[in-house]
Amino acid sequence: xxxxxxxxxxxxxxxxxxxxxxxxxxxxxxxxxxxxxxxxxxxxxxxxxxxxxxxxxxxxxxxxxxxxxxxxxxxxxxxxxxxxxxxxxxxxxxxxxxxxxxxxxxxxxxxxxxxxxxxxxxxxxxxxxxxxxxxxxxxxxxxxxxxxxxxxxxxxxxxxxxxxxxxxxxxxxxxxxxxxxxxxxxxxxxxxxxxxxxxxxxxxxxxxxxxxxxxxxxxxxxxxxxxxxxxxxxxxxxxxxxxxxxxxxxxxxxxxxxxxxxxxxxxxxxxxxxxxxxxxxxxxxxxxxxxxxxxxxxxxxxxxxxxxxxxxxxxxxxxxxxxxxxxxxxxxxxxxxxxxxxxxxxxxxxxxxxxxxxxxxxxxxxxxxxxxxxxxxxxxxxxxxxxxxxxxxxxxx
Length: 397
What we know:
397 residues, six-stranded mixed sheet, four-stranded parallel sheet, 17 helices, 42% helix
């Protein structure tokens, strides 16, 4: 229920710890140099700043060395697909974007600025971000609804020479791949041995399917509200048509639950529900990632009766698939080498590094992915992204 400022006082709202924490926002700007006297002022501002401006005008690349640009990311949203709340608009999206910026700083030392745009047209979004881009070393797109999010990211990647990363897609995909690699390792299989069903063909469902294909999954079927995406199905948009061409080698038809019969892996990203009977029909040693929040597609205790490994998107159950395991280290690595883009290989490298944080002596059914508070995570992902960016020829350092 919406809360009207006129119907309740701020003091009453502040009795809730969530409101109390958010009072005044979660971010502030602090200076990195002192201004104690006239000499400091003359260096930080006029006349000293003019020397730096002139040098950058002559050699624009110097902006990366003599401004904050090389360590700052724009967290951009139009508020159309915010968490599980849907299209709540740019003002209501700001607490989430502030939170994202907070996580960038806390987990990887990356400065980030939340930017909530009051436009939803693809052309307007792309033009606005392109005009803002000189102020940033990278662009993190967030909570933009599908299928527009695919076009926005693709066009920005073509137009900009800095990393553009839609976290709802690729952050989720990286963490899912890492957890699945470890779940397969635990059960004595490789990705190539697995047949997966992904419920959901939105931003995260498409990205997860793509990264699993790139990593060598045995077969994968993707479903939406109308059932399994397959070649020849009427009414597919271009994104789903491409999925139909590249997935579902078994040519499955029908519902998600029908496709789960004999499947090794279920990845839920749809907000739908899956019955216990469908989970029970999966192959022995099944792996269930029920990732919808706050309500998983199947309760983890129910899934655990039949599956070897169960993961959710929630912090109150084991194996939380949390994007914060990926995006801070990915951007830290990309910024450190001033990468021009984030390649598919860099995403897979990030997933492999994340998976490797969990050693053989730690790996268990309740621990296939590390905690976001594991201090090993961000450095491991950063190092992998740096190495792969150089291998892929997109690093400028």
